[in-house]
Design the sequence.
């Protein structure tokens, strides 16, 4: 029967040295940092998702509000120009709006969103035009229903009204933007 | 004088032990803190997203139900005041040039113990009434509101229920708050607002 050695080699029973412990813990710390940064990234992404949901809901609600207005007055109520407001200058909501919950607006006046129509300022007056090159609004196109695309103001004679609702806000991952485009048209109620 | 002999098995000095212990405890405490925070955050966010999704689904259902109705036939017809129920009929189409309207339907808030419910009823009050509960997690009051005769949440309404309808011109503003106590006793609340325009 073989005899056991009197003592095991000392080297194998030494355990960690202080330096090894420091290195081990540093590796653990780095792993912890990576884990925390990924958790923080997930939290940021959830905030972004929540804000995007808010923006989508706000755009949908605004679109329903536009639909609920008298069609012939939609442009005058929600355009940039306060001078043509149907109830008197400055009485209409205008083209800028705030969304509750999207607190950090990019706009210096604190507005989160804007409504864009195919219009242009010409000689100090705003004109709703058919001939503008705005692909995001499907322009140029006939707005008055006469099958002609001209360069006249159609603020009082539109039959179709292209609308773009744009929201911009600052989120934890930078500036975000959401756009919704549609075309409003006159239809008869049953 | 000869220096004392230190064998390879002599272990750490007291300073090394203190430093190593401090470092180890620090790292593990931080790890525990990070794990706990991460789990807490994930749990909060998951609950919150779950209720937000549910609130939006219920809201879409309410919106779609009312969308096909005629603004003039809605009951009650109170402008700018809030109500917790709405009765409507929606257009089924045209027959001989006349609009065919559906049987009357109602969406209403039913207050319960702790939370309320949203009930959809067809032919409300009639013998052939049909009733479906769309959600039973509705808060008794809208988020931030208290029963004190004041507008606590700044939405222009006073003491509104967890489901409220406001008629503003041709549009209806619907507000809903779902809430539920979690297993740890926290109350998770999610509110959504929806605007609907009656198409008919």
Sequence:
């Amino acid at each position: 029967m073989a005899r056991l050695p009197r003592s095991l080699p000392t080297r194998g029973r030494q355990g960690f040295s202080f330096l090894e412990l420091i290195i081990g813990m540093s590796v653990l710390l780095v792993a912890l940092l990576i884990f925390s940064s990924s958790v923080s990234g997930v939290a940021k992404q959830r905030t972004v998702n929540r804000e995007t949901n808010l923006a989508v809901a706000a755009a949908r609600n605004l679109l329903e509000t536009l639909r609920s207005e008298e069609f012939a007055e939609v442009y005058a109520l929600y355009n940039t120009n306060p001078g043509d407001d149907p109830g008197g200058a400055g009485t209409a909501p205008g083209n800028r709006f705030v969304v509750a919950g999207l607190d950090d607006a990019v706009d210096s006046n604190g507005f989160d969103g804007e409504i864009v129509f195919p219009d242009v300022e010409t000689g100090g007056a705003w004109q709703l035009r058919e001939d503008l090159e705005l692909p995001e609004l499907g322009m140029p196109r006939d707005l008055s229903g006469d099958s002609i695309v001209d360069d006249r103001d159609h603020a009082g004679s539109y039959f179709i009204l292209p609308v773009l609702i744009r929201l911009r806000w600052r989120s934890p991952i930078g500036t975000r933007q959401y756009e919704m485009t549609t075309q409003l048209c006159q239809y008869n109620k049953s | 004088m000869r220096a004392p002999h230190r064998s390879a098995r002599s272990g750490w000095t007291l300073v090394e032990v203190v430093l190593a212990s401090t470092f180890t405890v620090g790292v593990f405490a931080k790890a525990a803190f990070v794990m706990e925070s991460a789990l807490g955050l994930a749990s909060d966010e998951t609950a919150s997203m779950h209720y937000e999704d549910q609130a939006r689904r219920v809201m879409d259902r309410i919106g779609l139900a009312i969308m096909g109705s005629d603004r003039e036939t809605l009951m009650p017809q109170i402008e700018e005041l809030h109500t917790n129920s709405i009765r409507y009929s929606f257009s089924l189409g045209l027959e001989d040039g006349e609009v065919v309207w559906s049987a009357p339907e109602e969406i209403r808030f039913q207050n319960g113990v702790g939370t309320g419910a949203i009930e959809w009823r067809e032919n409300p009050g009639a013998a052939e009434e049909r009733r479906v509960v769309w959600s039973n997690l509705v808060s008794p009051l809208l988020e931030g509101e208290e029963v004190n005769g004041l507008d606590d949440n700044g939405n222009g309404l006073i003491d509104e229920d967890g489901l409220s309808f406001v008629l503003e011109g041709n549009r209806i503003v619907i507000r809903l708050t779902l809430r539920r106590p979690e297993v740890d006793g926290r109350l998770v609340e999610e509110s959504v607002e929806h605007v609907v325009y009656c198409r008919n």
The mean pLDDT of chain B is 86. Chain B touches chain A at residues 7-9, 12, 16, 19-20, 23-24, 27, 30-31, 34, 37-38, 41-42, 45, 49, 52, 56, 70, 91, 94, 99, 169-171, 192-197, 199-200 (CB under 8 Å).
